[in-house]
Amino acid sequence: MNAIFFDTDQLAPSLWQHLQLLGWQAAPSADLSQAALVLCMQPPAAAMWAQAPQAIWLLNDVGADVVVPADMVAYRFCGWPGFTDRLVWELAACTPVADGSHLPALEQALGVQLRLVANVPGLVAPRVLACIINEACFGLAEGICSPADMDTAMKLGTNYPQGPVSWAQQIGPARVQHLLQRMAAADARYQPHPQLLELLAP
C-alpha cells in the first residue's frame, strides 16, 4: 500500500519512526496522486483532497473540526501526544463511504488495532479524559489539594498511568480546552473551567 505521512509541524516523531519501518513515505516530497493511504497530523489544505481522491484519509481531528468532502473515504483519530503510541486506536468515520470495511487493511498498514467509534467530538477516550481533567480543575480552583497531590491521588486511587494535571500538561491544556468547548456546543455541562489554562500551566 502506498502510504503517505503528512506532519509538517512534526507533532508525532515517534509515530513517524514507527511508520517508516512499515514502508510509509513522508509528505510533501511524496506524490499524493499515487497514494492509497494518507495520514494527516495537520488539517489537509483544500487542494490536497483533489490530489488524492482515491486515497483513504486518516485525520488527526479530535474535535471534529475538519470539513471532509462527502465522497472521500476519511476517518478521524486522536493524535494527541501519547495516543498514537498505543496499540489500539479509535477511528470515527467522517463520511458514509467510510463504512469500516477498510479497517483490516488499515490495521496492517499502521501496525495497530483499530476500533470504530461514534463520529462525535472527542471520540471516546479523549472525551472521557477531557472531562476528568476539567473536573480536576474545579478541585484545584477550590483549593482541595495541590496539582501534585491531585495526580498522586488519581494514580493511587484509580490506577491511572498519569494524573489529570500531568496528563493535561503532556497533551497541552489548550487542546483539552478546545475539545471541551466543542463538546459544550452540544451540551453546556462540558463547558471548560474558566481558569483551565492557568490551573494546568506547567
Q: Do you know the CATH architecture of the largest domain?
A: 3-Layer(aba) Sandwich
Shape: elongated
Q: Which series of helices and strands comes N to C?
A: EHEEHEEEHEHHHHH
CATH fourth-tier homologous superfamily of the largest domain: NAD(P)-binding Rossmann-like Domain
Tell me the major beta sheet. 7 strands, mixed
Mean pLDDT: 95
Distance between the terminal alpha carbons, to the nearest Å? 42 Å
Structural class: alpha/beta
What level of helicity do the residues show? Answer: 25-40%
- Tally the beta strands: 7
Outline the low-pLDDT stretches: none
CATH class of the largest domain: Alpha Beta
Q: How much of the sequence is in beta strands?
A: 15-25%
Radius of gyration: 18 Å
Structure characterization notes:
It contains eight helices and seven strands, in the order βαββαβββαβααααα. The protein folds into two domains: 3-117, NAD(P)-binding Rossmann-like Domain (Rossmann fold, 3-Layer(aba) Sandwich); 125-199, N-(1-d-carboxylethyl)-l-norvaline Dehydrogenase, domain 2 (Orthogonal Bundle), CATH 1.10.1040. Helix 1 (13-21) links the parallel strand 1 and strand 2 (25-26). The chain is of the alpha/beta class. The chain has helices spanning 13-21, 46-51, 103-110, 125-141, 147-158, 164-171, 173-184, 196-199, and strands at 3-6, 25-26, 37-40, 56-60, 73-77, 88-93, 113-117. The chain has a seven-stranded mixed β-sheet with strand order 2-1-3-4-5-6-7, with helices on one face.
